[in-house]
Amino acid sequence: MTSGALDDGYKWPSSSHTHPMLYMEYWYFNFTDPETGVGGIIGFGVVNPADHLGLGRAAVVGSMFDGEGGATAFDDLYPIEDFSAHVAAADVEIGKSGKLTANGTDHIRVRARSNNGEVQVDLEFKRAASQVMIPPGQGPTSWSWNRWLIYMPSACVSGTVTVKGKQTMITQGGGYHDHSWGAWPLPLSTWAWAVWSAPTKKHAGVIGYHCAFNKSQAFVLVPHANGGQQRVDFEESTMVFTPKQIGSWLLFYKRPTEVSFEAYDSTREWRIDVTWRLTATANLWRSPVIIFESACTFEGGIYRKSEDGRWECYQPLNGVPGHSESVDTWWGSGALNEKGSWPGGAGR
To answer: Considering only CA atoms, which of 109, 154, 111, 115 is closest in space to residue 132?
Structure first.
């Protein structure tokens, strides 16, 4: 994983396009508020921005979680002419319902309103960790490609969230923001992932199963003795994902509702052993793939080997709030949707 600085601007104008109708680009944000339990995800996206055959679309999507098991989702589509974006920064506007405004490289204001009026979001994301560029894997076809920039692995979040008339003021929330762009046949590549961010305590984590096509990835940020943060990357060959509980949707379609994960870094000095459990779920997409967005909590910890060879818990995770996402297909070949042990590599 690399940390070279990239901007968060619109990538379509500077990308090569062999299959422009399948080009997708999105800016994704999530947040949790430890004080109220409220959290959610917001996404701004565009597909086929050249509007071939008149099929180009933009979207503002979201899933809000009330901290008590309730979820409210929306998926609002717009004609391509309602989309505009800047190439140098995350300045994006979709219709009158979604707007991103970048203030330098470390602040982004996220404003969104669902078309049905149930959800309104006005949040400020302030960077709490350096960006990470995930190396691409091998796509499902020879021409598939994707870039995944985790622009803010951890962020301080403040602002307001209003769901069905109830407004929540967030002052010390934790957040995450990534940006992805590329072209591939979406139903041929499924994934599952989970993330948490606790910026006031200087720790965060990203765990992804096949999020870079056939590659899995995981890293954590933990407090450093110098008062800053240290990033620990875990080796894909050591990763084991173990779905322990499986939930169903419309009887046939499945999603993991409890997953354990274990991995080691390349020096075998660090180990992660965590479990995330879903607390609320919303079905965000139904086509061309089925996407589940969920609130979850993390238990377990990040361990460091002592000088005498014992594993000591360096950063405990006791009910830390976060988010997870999983994808299924209409023929039921989703990621982590069967109990058992799934290696991080391209095997199962």
So the answer is: 154
